[in-house]
């Protein structure tokens, strides 16, 4: 029986995926790396340093920078991202998500955050959702990033559940892969053409309700 929900944050609860994309594509430009939808989708869910490595690898530049230089580039991206984050208000929560969180609370489901982002607490704060998520996996404690299942297993653990008792929500292919490998039910938020491995996909966040999820579970 499902007893909990494990949420990714960026691209699931609010459109911060858009801000990550803006900041990374600016850096890619600066580094002379060709941007593409494929790269954009591949970056989703990856940790900050894994993202930078993928961008450099895409441009065959993985050996062009020292560790210190890479850290500088990642900090530069993060500073721009944080400027965008400052503009976030509760009105930026995706349609229907707040209602879904209330529905989960009313039915006694447990919930936690499985975001690779070190900025997740700041974003939750700007959205005024901190009270909903007492349990947030600290990405600093992870040995491996998404698509590894570690973060999703931890997100179940911190709410006292087994992975099989959880549904994981993700907008990233790397995230869906992690949820599936963790043995949780995967709920994709986005295009079914991209999130092909998800157990169910919702393009419209307004449609994410317990009734619609149950209908999909019985398929
Ligand atoms: C999330 C986003 C990624 C981002 C990562 C790290 O998983 O989907 O796009 O790179 O978090 O975020 P951070 O805020 O720590 O740089
Ligand atoms: Mg995401």
Provide a compact summary of the structure:
The chain is an alpha/beta fold.
Structure characterization notes:
The chain is an alpha/beta fold and 219 residues long. Helix content is 44%, strand content 10%. The chain contains 9 helices and 5 strands, in the order βαααααβααβαββα. A 5-stranded parallel beta sheet has the order 2-1-3-4-5, sandwiched between helices. Helix 8 links the parallel strand 3 and strand 4. Helix 1 runs antiparallel to helix 4. It binds 6-O-phosphono-alpha-D-glucopyranose (G6P) and magnesium ion. The site of magnesium ion has 10 residues, from loops.
Structural class: alpha/beta
The largest β sheet comes out as: 5 strands, parallel
Bound molecules: 6-O-phosphono-alpha-D-glucopyranose, magnesium ion
Query: N-to-C terminal Cα separation, in Å?
Result: 16 Å
For the residues shown, what is the average pLDDT? Answer: 97
Number of strands: 5
């Amino acid at each position: 029986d499902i007893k909990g929900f494990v949420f990714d944050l960026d691209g699931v609860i609010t459109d911060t995926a858009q801000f990550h994309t803006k900041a990374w594509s600016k850096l890619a430009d600066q580094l002379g790396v060709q941007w593409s939808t494929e790269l954009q989708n591949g970056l989703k869910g990856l940790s900050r340093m894994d993202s930078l490595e993928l961008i450099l690898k895409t441009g065959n530049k993985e050996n062009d920078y020292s560790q210190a230089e890479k850290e500088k580039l990642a900090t530069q991206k993060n500073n721009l991202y944080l400027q965008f984050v400052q503009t976030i208000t509760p009105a930026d929560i995706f349609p229907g998500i707040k209602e879904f969180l209330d529905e989960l609370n009313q039915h006694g489901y447990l919930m936690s955050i499985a975001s690779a982002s070190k900025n997740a607490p700041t974003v939750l704060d700007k959205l005024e959702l901190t009270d909903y998520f007492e349990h947030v996996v600290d990405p600093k404690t992870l040995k491996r990033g998404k698509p590894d299942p570690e973060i999703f297993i931890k997100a179940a653990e911190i709410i006292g559940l087994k992975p099989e008792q959880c549904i994981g929500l993700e907008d990233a292919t790397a995230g869906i892969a992690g949820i599936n490998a963790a043995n949780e039910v995967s709920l994709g938020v986005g295009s079914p053409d991209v999130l092909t491995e998800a157990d169910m996909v919702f393009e419209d966040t307004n449609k994410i309700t317990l009734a619609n999820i149950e209908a999909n579970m019985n398929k």
